[in-house]
Amino acid sequence: MADKEDNPELFTAREKAALEFAERMTVDSNNVDEDLWNRLKEHFDEGEIIEIACVIGVFNYFNRFNNALKVDITK
């Protein structure tokens, strides 16, 4: 994931749009702009975008919950 900028061939345009959406929702959810929405709509229907947003939100919740409570990572 960290190499996605240096190795753009690793992901399809569809995957790149979803990954950017995940990053944007995680870092600055108030900054999901029209350009990103348009790219998402090129690859996903409305239901798929909602599902992706839900999964992103749930995992962000789990991460914040576990981080705040200093939960040890399980193997």
TrEMBL record:
User: PANTHER family recorded for this chain?
Assistant: 4-CARBOXYMUCONOLACTONE DECARBOXYLASE FAMILY PROTEIN (AFU_ORTHOLOGUE AFUA_6G11590), CYTOPLASMIC PROTEIN
Q: What is this protein called?
A: Alkylhydroperoxidase
